Amino acid sequence: MSTRGAALLQPDAAGLARAAEILTQGGLVSFPTETVYGLGADARNDRAVAAIFAAKGRPSFNPLIVHLGDITAANEICDFNDDARCLAAAFWPGALTLVLPLRPQAGISRLVTAGLDSIAVRVPDHKVAQGLLAAFGGPVAAPSANASGRISPTTAAHVRDSLGDRIDALVDGGPCFVGLESTIVACLGTPTLLRAGGIPSEAIAACLGRPLAISENPDAPVSPGQLLSHYAPIGQVRLNATARQDGEVMLGFGLMDADLNLSPAGDLTEAAARLFDCLHQLDAMGAARIAVAPIPDHGLGRAINDRLKRAAAPR
Ligand code: TXA
Ligand code: MG
Question: Key word Nuclease present in the record (predicted)?
Answer without folding.
Answer: no
